[in-house]
Design brief:
By secondary structure, the chain is mainly α. It has 4 domains: 82 residues, no CATH class; 160 residues, no CATH class; 84 residues; 71 residues, no CATH class. Helix content is 65%, strand content 1%. It is built from 21 helices and 2 strands. It has a two-stranded parallel sheet. α2 packs across α4 and α13 packs antiparallel against α14. It is globular and about 70 Å long. The C terminus is likely disordered. This is Transcriptional regulator. It comes from Streptomyces broussonetiae.
Length: 457
């Protein structure tokens, strides 16, 4: 007889009953959500039976189970409540983030600094994405006037300008090489350089401008973290970017961040949540006359609504986005204009979801062929997406053409999203192994793709 017999996990059994989930259904959902985090699992009903009997998986899996049960029941369920965490892991269990941080800028700087500490950041990488209440979309409030004089100020307009230029450079790095490239450098810059500036006195108008740039940097770091496969961490940066945008009175960055959160929600298999976040992004734009910004958020809401099977509303959003595109007076730069190629990529996804295959292919071809020269990562994703849709239509020769173009770009990228696209492309090409071109592209991709991340039972 074992000296430490396992006890049946009654907590998990009760939660499964409340969620009306079978063991097989839970296993499938765990596998799917883990895959969205970049972790390949192969659980089945027998795995869940072992958990019910008292065995415990890795802490990451327990958090995935908690998130699935939270979505299913509509109430917050912590990983500790599932009975799946070992005692030491339960002691370190990640608490739910506070809905209203007491000092968002301090929290942001502290998180960025932790993200650069090798001994501490490993815990950040295990955060699981959580579907929670949609953040308030009300108009941001500018930072309070601290009543400083020019003589007392230590931070000036030149410091803000420099930070803005650096933000643009980090954004350019992301869309060229992927979010995992130099992500740590961005966290370091935010934690050290920006943290130092925020700690010094500044005139009110300079302070507001600095906080706005800080929000933009947090937005970039959130997107880069998601593209590095760190979805739970990315979600925390997104939320802090929203709060920084509010303090900086920056409704533009707030709308862009909510839109980015909607994109992430779709990738994390939460379409209803993605629609709600896209709604909030459109609300955040308000009466802003910037056509490109409006197109940017509307086409994402169209995509989310298409995935959520709200087809009529999706068509309305897509039409409104098309009418808005190109009508902007905001200026130049990566945060000023929505490129026609970017719009074509997103609208192509919408059209494909709506069943308009030929217009979708036309849009995706435009996206793949007209990306700017420096947008290597975005171009590669466009090529892979087009190849996948072409394979769906049996257009294997053309799909192989874009598959080869993707394979040419892929080695230079450090993008988890690109890796997932590569795996999906390989899986689809495997159905056409008898086609010489498909087999050739499949062989090329097989030599380039890293092995998938796995977790133990």
């Amino acid at each position: 007889m074992s000296p430490h017999p396992r006890r049946r996990n009654e907590a998990l059994a009760q939660l499964l009953a409340e969620a009306d989930l079978t063991s097989a259904e839970l296993a499938r959902r765990v596998n799917r959500l883990a895959a969205a985090h970049g972790v390949e699992l192969r659980y089945d009903r027998t795995s869940v039976a072992h958990w019910l009997a008292g065995s415990r998986p890795q802490a990451f899996v327990a958090q995935v189970v908690a998130e699935i049960l939270t979505r299913r029941t509509g109430r917050l369920i912590a990983a500790t409540e599932t009975g799946l965490l070992r005692e030491r892991a339960a002691d370190r269990a990640e608490p739910a983030p506070a809905p209203v941080p007491q000092d968002p800028l301090s929290d942001l700087i502290a998180l960025a600094r932790t993200d650069t500490e090798p001994k501490q950041r490993s815990g950040l990488r295990t955060y699981v994405y959580q579907e929670r209440r949609v953040p308030d979309a009300r108009r941001p409030r500018p930072a309070a006037d601290k009543g400083l004089t020019g003589a007392e100020a230590k931070v000036g307009a030149a410091d803000v300008h420099r930070a803005g230029v650096v933000a643009d450079q980090f954004y350019a790095n992301w869309i060229r090489f992927g979010g995992a490239h130099a992500r740590g450098a961005l966290a370091s810059y935010l934690g050290d350089d920006i943290g130092g500036l925020l700690a010094q006195p500044a005139l009110p108008e300079v302070r507001v401008a600095l906080v706005s740039v800080t929000a933009r940097l947090a937005y970039i770091l959130a997107g880069a973290s998601a593209d590095a496969g760190l979805h739970g961490l990315a979600q925390r940066y997104h939320l802090l970017a929203l709060d920084a945008a509010a303090e900086g009175g920056d409704d533009r960055t707030r709308a862009m961040t909510l839109r980015s959160m909607s994109v992430q929600a779709l990738r994390m298999r939460a379409p209803r949540y993605a629609v709600e976040l896209a709604d909030a992004a459109v609300t955040a734009v308000g009466r802003n006359q910037d056509g490109d910004l409006r197109a940017f958020v509307l086409v994402q809401r169209a995509h989310a609504r298409a995935v959520a099977a709200e087809h009529d509303d999706s068509r309305l959003d897509l039409s409104a986005a098309e009418r808005s595109l190109g009508r902007t007076a905001f200026g130049d730069g990566p945060f000023a204009r929505y490129s026609p190629a970017g719009f074509a990529y997103r609208s192509g996804q919408v059209l494909h979801r709506l069943g308009h295959v030929q217009p979708a292919l036309d849009a995706l071809r435009s996206a793949a062929e007209t990306r700017a020269e420096h947008e290597n990562c975005l171009r590669a994703l466009s090529q892979a997406r087009l190849a996948l849709v072409l394979l769906d239509q049996g257009l294997v020769d053309e799909a192989c053409l874009y598959g080869r173009l993707f394979a040419r770009e892929y080695p230079a990228l450090r993008s988890h999203r690109a890796t997932l696209m590569s795996r999906e492309l390989r899986a689809r090409l495997a159905r056409f192994r008898r086609h010489p071109g498909a087999l050739d592209v499949l062989r090329i991709l097989s030599t380039l793709d890293p092995p998938p991340a796995t977790a133990q039972h």
